[in-house]
Amino acid sequence: MLITLSKLPTRRRPNKTGSRTAPKPFLSDTQWLLIADLFPDPPMGPRGGRPWRSSRECLEGILWVLITGARWKDLPERYPSSVTCWRRHRDWARNRVFRAAWDRLLSKLLQRRGICWEETIGDGSFARAKKGATTWGVAIVEMEPASSC
Fold first, then answer.
1. What gap in Å lies between CA 124 and CA 143, rounded to an integer?
2. How far apart are CA 120 and CA 116, in angstroms?
3. Residue 141 class from Cβ within 10 Å (0-12 exposed, 13-18 middle, 19+ buried)?
4. Which residues have C-beta within 8 Å of that of residue 98, sequence separation ≥ 6?
5. Which residues, listed in sequence order, are joined to residue 45 by a DSSP beta bridge?
6. What mean pLDDT is predicted for residues 2-29?
7. Residue 92: what pLDDT?
8. Where are the alpha helices (DSSP H) in the chain?
9. What is the 8-class DSSP label of residue 84?
10. From CA 2, how far away is CA 19, in angstroms rounded?
11. What is the band of 18 on the pLDDT scale with cuts at 50, 70, 90?
């Protein structure tokens, strides 16, 4: 008995929804559109060369590292290379692009009244506790909340 591929039944419905196992992006499309102008794609050099990876891909890779706490070299293959993401993170941090993006996203959330400052908490699990330290290295200033609920 000879079986050929043309005799096999075809798939009834094509997969138009994408992969079910691929993780969802950290930023939604509306969030990205809000901050996209802060992360322009670099222009091609005069000598050509390899095309740059998109800023959104690099930002997603950077967010993966920051959220998971993993090392740069552990960045999954679905993101640009770890060196590319690290360089963009370095450049964007130096140019204070992250701060501007954070301010935009936070102001949008405040407009929607999505933050109640009376119910926020701070996690200090990442802060160092030096042995024998009796004073803080920086002054602690108490501030009023920016908005009320």
1. 18
2. 7
3. exposed
4. 92
5. 48
6. 69
7. 93
8. 29-35, 55-68, 82-94, 97-111
9. H
10. 34
11. low
